[in-house]
Design a protein that fits this description.
single chain, about 280 residues, alpha/beta, about 25% strand, 8-stranded mixed β-sheet, Hypothetical Protein, Haloacid Dehalogenase-like Hydrolase, Chain: A, domain 2, 6-stranded mixed β-sheet
Length: about 280
């Protein structure tokens, strides 16, 4: 029996217009609450951005944000992981010197921080995904007395995503973990603190086994989560490697794939096969 359902957001729960069918979701959430099934949003995005999609449901949803570096339930922080000051500075210097044209932001507990020199396109992207943000003149001059930092967000040429990730893994072995949802996006997090670890923390807290969990995803940063749970779904629009890792396939995110599967599971008692 499923006791927890976790969903990625972009490319999974949300359609390409960054919306979802709220009326259908309300019916599903009511049924989940009736059955005491937990609903978890597991995303690489900032908590403030994720919460903005569910203002009326904050008390009913748990958030694994920042690719697992931050977990909140009913607005209460259950888990947080930070980078050391020394590592923040070392990674920032390396990125600036090795990839001088790279677009980057550093996410903290209070806000996301980006330099004013960043391109207008990147600024618009960050303003959407990180609505709680602040401009700084230099990321090397961040406030380490009053803020804790939990993630780097890099925007790189899509063709260089893998090579830059590999380079950073080798340069900062065991100190940072590059994870990507594709399309030139790379998040740098503390190793061992991904979406699967977030689910493990909730598993221990709520005494729910991985076999009692269902998860949906479409990108590489969903792989560990999909491999961790007993009921794993890749969206039909997911990357091939994600489909290989999942047990089942959900319809396209633009066809309300997650909602379709949940309706079939909750109200018809069936699960979709991978075939």
């Amino acid at each position: 029996m499923v006791k927890l359902i976790a969903v990625d957001m972009d490319g999974t729960f949300l359609n390409s217009q960054k919306t979802y069918d709220k009326q259908r979701f309300q019916v599903i959430l009511d049924e989940l609450k009736k059955r005491k099934i937990r609903f978890v949003v597991a995303s690489g995005n900032q908590y403030a951005q994720l919460a903005s999609f569910f203002p009326e449901y904050i008390e009913d949803i748990t958030f694994i944000a920042e690719n697992g570096m931050l977990i909140l339930d009913k607005g209460e922080i259950l888990f947080e992981k930070h980078f050391s000051k020394e590592l923040i500075l070392a990674v920032t210097v390396y990125l600036k010197e090795t990839y001088p044209g790279i677009q980057m932001v550093i996410n903290g507990m209070k806000a996301s921080y980006l330099e004013r020199r960043m391109s207008s396109k990147f600024k618009q992207l960050i303003q959407f995904y990180c609505p709680a943000y602040e401009w700084v003149e230099d990321l090397l001059a961040l406030d380490f007395e009053n803020e804790k930092y939990i993630k780097f967000v890099l925007d790189v040429p899509p063709s260089k995503t893998e090579s830059i990730s590999q380079d950073l893994s080798e340069k900062f072995s065991k100190e940072i973990l590059p994870v990507s949802s594709g399309h030139g996006n790379i998040d740098l997090i503390v190793p061992g603190n991904d979406k699967a670890n977030g689910l493990k923390i909730l598993s221990d807290r709520w005494k729910i086994s991985p076999q009692e969990m269902m998860a949906f995803g479409d990108g590489q940063n969903d792989l560990t989560m999909l491999k961790y749970v007993g009921h794993s779904y890749a969206m039909s629009n997911a990357a091939p490697v994600v489909k290989q890792a999942a047990k089942y396939e959900a319809p396209h995110n633009n066809k309300n794939g997650v909602l379709q599967v949940l309706e079939e599971y909750l109200f018809k008692g069936t699960e979709r096969s991978c075939d």
